[in-house]
Each structure stands twice: as C-alpha cells, then as structure tokens.
Design a protein that fits this description.
- The protein is mainly alpha-helical.
- The chain starts with a helix and ends with a helix.
- It contains 13 helices and 5 strands.
- The chain is 61% helix and 5% strand.
- The strands form 2 sheets. It has a 3-stranded mixed sheet with strand order 4-3-5. A two-stranded parallel sheet has the order 1-2.
- 37% of the residues are buried.
- It has one domain: P1 Nuclease (Orthogonal Bundle).
C-alpha cells in the first residue's frame, strides 16, 4: 500500500515538474489568439475543438500525461538547443516540440483525419506552440529545462522551470482574462508584423537570448520582487508573442 502511494506521489511530482505554462498562461495565450484570428477561421477552429475553447484546449496535452497511451508524446513539450540552432542529434528519440509542431501542422493542413484525430492533433499543436515560447522549454540539455535548479520563491521551495511556468504569473493575482486584456492592448501592428515574420528557428534564438536573464539568480537562490521586476517584461512579451504566432498558424491551417 505504501509503495502504491509513493508511486502515485512520484508520478504526480514528475508530471508537475514536466508541465509547461500553467493553466493561466495557456488560457490567456489562447484567449489573446482568439481575438486576433479572422472570425471565419475562429469558427472553424472552435468547431474542431468543441466543446473546448481555444484557451482551454491549450492545457489538454498536460491533462493527458496520466494516460499511458499518450506516452509517445512526452518529449514533445520541449527541445534542446545549445545556441539557438535546431540539431536533431540533440533531441529525444521520441521527438521534440520543434519537429512535432511542423509535423502536426502539415497533417492538419492535409486533412483526411477523423474528428477525434483532428481535435487531438490540433490541441497538441496549440499546446506546443504555446510551450515553445516559455524560454525554459528550449533547454540547454544540462538541467532539464531548469527543473533541476532549486530555488525559493517568496520563501516557498520550487524550481526555476516552475517559476516561469506559473509562479510569476500566479503571483500577479489576476485572472487570465484580466491579464490577457492588459497585454493585448499593448500589441501594436508593428509588433504583430515582426512576430509573424519570424521563422521557427528564430523562436529558438529568442529563447536562447533570454537565458542570461532567466538564469540571473542570486547566490542564495532566494527570489522575490527584484527578480520578478527584472523578468516581468520578458515574461509578458513571451506570452504575447505566443498568441500572435498561434493565431498565425491556425489561420495558415484553417484560413
């Protein structure tokens, strides 16, 4: 009995550590993407995902981690890039976010999928596009995307990956719609054009360029207001960028 309880605890912990943007992050990226999409495209996407919204569907790929039949997708949440390059030799054998995004996008554009297949592939694609904009999902290959970097956040033990997934977002004390509305009003046409013109290789370079900031930790690894203040603009910019590119990809598929 004790072994069973311990196994469940360890499984839950590993799932939590491997997860991407927390629920708020995924919800608000999808919510902002909805506002940017052409109405005709949004209706097509919503029909495929029904009864889930675009925002809610972004968490589905994390929700299914406890279902062993989806273990094949465990490594699709992240990738390894040393200096902003994509090198297949450095990736997991089961695949990675970079490869899976391109493959699922092509499969969805090609069609010939039944309703369940299309919905699941679309929910995975949405999740991964959002994930890859969290800087630590483009990892160095040395610390499991910051999961091995133990820190204290306002005196609570956590790790660097979880801090960027949800810790700083949750600390804002805002709903996903409140934060999304605040961020969306800052999105200019120039920003949208710049984000949409970037290649996926550029996405990796962006993540790597953020590493000095992400890993700029005090020696005692105790983090509070100073780190949040210094990281806030980058955190929010990553959420906005993800929303623009998600809307772009959905329009490319269903437009």
């Amino acid at each position: 009995m004790k072994k069973s309880v311990l196994f469940v605890f360890i499984l839950a912990l590993s799932i939590q550590q491997a997860a991407a943007w927390g629920q708020l992050g995924h919800f608000l990226i999808g919510y902002m993407a909805e506002q940017q999409m052409k109405k005709s495209v949004r209706k097509k996407v919503e029909k495929v995902l029904y009864p889930m919204s675009i925002g809610r569907s972004g968490t589905w790929m994390d929700d299914i981690r406890s279902d062993r039949s989806y273990d094949y997708a465990n490594s699709w949440h992240y990738l390894t890039s040393k200096n902003g390059e994509y090198d297949l030799a450095n990736q997991e054998k089961g695949g990675d976010a970079f490869e899976a995004i391109q493959r699922l996008k092509a499969e969805l554009k090609a069609g010939n999928l039944d309703a369940k297949q299309e919905a699941e592939k679309l929910k995975m694609l949405i999740h991964m596009v959002e994930d890859i904009h969290q800087p630590l999902h483009v990892g160095t290959g040395d610390d499991r995307g910051g999961n091995d970097v133990k820190i204290e956040f306002f005196n609570q033990p956590t790790n660097l990956h979880a801090l960027w997934d949800s810790g700083m977002i949750d600390r804002k004390g805002m709903s996903y719609t409140e934060l999304a509305d605040e961020l969306y009003r800052r999105l200019t046409p120039e920003m949208k054009t710049s984000y949409r013109s970037a290649s996926m290789e550029d996405w990796l370079k962006e993540a790597v360029s953020n590493r000095p900031l992400v890993y700029n930790l005090p020696e005692n690894k105790k983090i509070s207001w100073v780190y949040m203040y210094e990281a806030n603009d980058t955190l929010e910019e990553r959420l906005v960028a993800a929303s623009v590119r998600l809307a772009q990809i959905l329009e490319e598929i269903y437009g």
